[in-house]
Every structure is written in structure tokens, then in C-alpha cells.
Specification:
Number of domains: 1
Number of helices: 7
Strand content: 15-25%
Shape: globular
Bound molecules: zinc ion
CATH architecture: 3-Layer(aba) Sandwich
Distance between the termini: 50 Å
Structural class: alpha/beta
Helix content: 10-25%
Radius of gyration: 19 Å
Order of helices and strands: EEEEHEEEHEHEHEHHH
């Protein structure tokens, strides 16, 4: 734009569009999906504020998909600054049921090589500064998180990415999420390896936790950029090399979406995610503050909306 301002988000009301049942969260290097037809851009307001950026409703492979760049277009948000609660509440408000997220990661294991893709099976949380639950303020909920990624969606992604010929993707690695924004020290990198982590990033959490609490299916496609700093003979994390690999990976990820997303859409949600909070809330309903219930209704309407039967 000549005046340097971004174009205003189109005011196409979401209710006049088919609901976007799939959400895609783009990570570093994946800020938009060129070639996909944009139906509208929306910025839903949520009780936790606004999402990272306008959410584009785009048509990919015949599916309406809600695309959200995690760090904002132009990469403006630190991992610690991403408003995860608003992001998932906004996606849920658009009708999203399943989220495929993308993230650039470092490798902590010899076999996970730069430019590999991976869909992790487990998580270790080393974040410190991020709100990571919708509960609190008078409503206590505890949700099962032993398997942090959707047990149906993660294997589906592994299968489909392997079919597309991506190397290394059949493994089920453990991902460690650190706070950042600085990369690890060498001592930390070695200690994470000793903990059993194979990959490291700064964005898987609190996303996986919030998706589970919002009863969304969530899985993460990791794109390996480098060997972190543990590896003998490897130059330490070289930002230019990381960015080069990151852009190459993002390009491959984009090209996969038109085939991948219809497979996700047609997979029946017979996993446990849609019922994740069914028995989670412990607080006596009579004592739950009205304002907290109203907030929770934005992500869990079946339990907290005023006309909900499951009080
Ligand atoms: Zn699921």
C-alpha cells in the first residue's frame, strides 16, 4: 500500500461462510498460503484478547481452512508473546475442530537431520512465562494430557507425510519446548538429550495444552532446521543457516497442504479429544463465578453456556 498501512481486514461475517473445520497454524517461515483462495479475513475478539493476527479463511484442496500465522504476518511476536488462549478461542469460534500446526525445530538426536520433517508423539515443558490454561479464577479443571497430541491426527499426519516422501517422518519423537527467545546453552542442550528429548522448539506449548482444554484435535508438523549446539564438530546454531533451512522447509510444507488437509477433514473424529473436558471440572457449579463461566463458554460452550445441560 502506498500509504504504508496494511489493508483493513475484510468484514465478511464468518456466519455467512461455511465453518472452517480445520485450523492451520503457520510457524516461522509459514505466514501465508500463496495460491490458496482467500474467502475472508477475520479477527474474532475473545475473552483473552485478539489472536496473533487476522485469521484468513482460505480454500485449500476444496476445504475451508482457518489459517493463523502464529507470530503474526511479518513475524512480530516472540514465542513468549504469542497469545495462545486468544488464538485457540478464536479458532474455536470459527468452527475449527482440528488444528494442524507447523513449527521450525532444532534437532537433539543424530537421526533427526536438518531438513527432515517430524510429527512428535511426546512433549517436555520447559516454558516459564506463558499462561497455559483456560481454567482458574474460581473454576478448577484437570484434563488428561498423558498423550499431548491427538492420538488419531498425529499418526495420520505421519502416514501422509511419509507417503509424500518426506524423510524421517515415521518416527515418534519427543519434543522439548523451551521458553526462548535465546537458543539453548550447550549444557542445556546436553541435559535435554539426557532427558530423552529428540527435538526442541519454542512454540509447541502452551498450544497443545490449550487445544486439549478447548477439546480440539491438535498435532504438530516439525521442520528440522539445525542440530542445536550439542553436536561435536557442528558449528553452533548459525542463524543464517537456520533461516535458509526454515524457508526451504516452509516451501515444502506449503506444497503439501492441498493433498494433506482433505485427508484430515475426512478423518472421523473418533479420538478422545472432543470429550477431553467431560469430567475435568471439579468446582461445585453453584460456586463457579458467573464471569469465569462466561469466559469459559467461549471455548467450552457445551459445559459453560447459560443453556448448557452439563453444568
Ligand atoms: Zn483428536
Amino acid at each position: 500500500m502506498a500509504n504504508g498501512k496494511r489493508p483493513a481486514a475484510k468484514r465478511a461475517p464468518a456466519r455467512r461462510l461455511p465453518p472452517a473445520r480445520i485450523g492451520v497454524i503457520g510457524g516461522s517461515g509459514l505466514y501465508e498460503v500463496p495460491g490458496a483462495r482467500t474467502l475472508a479475513e477475520v479477527t474474532p475478539k475473545t475473552p483473552w484478547g485478539k489472536p496473533s493476527d487476522a485469521i484468513a479463511l482460505v480454500e485449500i484442496g476444496g476445504e475451508v481452512v482457518a489459517f493463523l500465522p502464529r507470530h503474526g504476518r511479518g513475524h512480530r511476536l516472540l514465542p513468549s508473546e504469542v497469545n495462545g488462549r486468544a488464538n485457540f478461542a478464536a479458532l474455536k469460534s470459527l468452527g475449527v475442530e482440528q488444528v494442524v500446526a507447523f513449527s521450525a525445530v532444532g534437532s537433539l538426536a543424530e537421526e533427526q537431520r536438518p531438513l527432515d520433517f517430524a510429527v512428535p508423539a511426546q512433549l517436555i515443558d520447559r516454558t516459564r512465562h506463558r499462561p497455559d490454561t483456560y481454567f482458574g479464577d474460581g473454576v478448577v479443571g484437570h484434563v488428561a494430557f498423558a498423550d499431548p497430541f491427538c492420538p488419531r491426527l498425529a499418526p495420520l499426519l505421519r502416514r501422509e507425510l511419509a507417503r509424500a516422501g518426506l524423510p524421517g517422518v515415521e518416527r515418534e519423537p519427543t519434543l522439548l519446548c523451551m521458553e526462548g527467545p535465546l537458543f539453548s546453552t550447550r549444557a542445556e542442550s546436553h541435559s535435554y538429550r539426557a532427558m530423552g528429548a529428540h527435538l526442541i522448539n519454542m512454540s509447541a506449548l502452551p498450544e497443545a495444552k490449550l487445544a486439549r482444554e478447548a477439546e480440539l484435535c491438535y498435532a504438530l508438523v516439525c521442520m528440522v532446521t539445525d542440530y542445536d549446539c550439542w553436536r561435536e564438530g557442528e558449528s553452533d546454531v548459525d542463524i543464517q543457516m537456520v533461516i535458509r533451512n526454515l524457508l526451504a522447509n516452509a516451501e515444502r510444507a506449503r506444497s503439501l497442504l492441498p493433498e494433506l488437509l482433505p485427508k484430515v477433514a475426512s478423518s472421523a473424529r473418533n479420538c478422545s479429544c472432543p470429550d477431553a473436558c467431560r469430567f475435568a471440572v471439579i468446582t461445585d457449579p453453584k460456586l463457579q463465578p458467573r464471569a469465569t463461566r462466561a469466559r469459559l463458554a467461549a471455548v467450552l460452550p457445551r459445559y459453560f453456556a447459560p443453556n448448557s445441560k452439563r453444568r
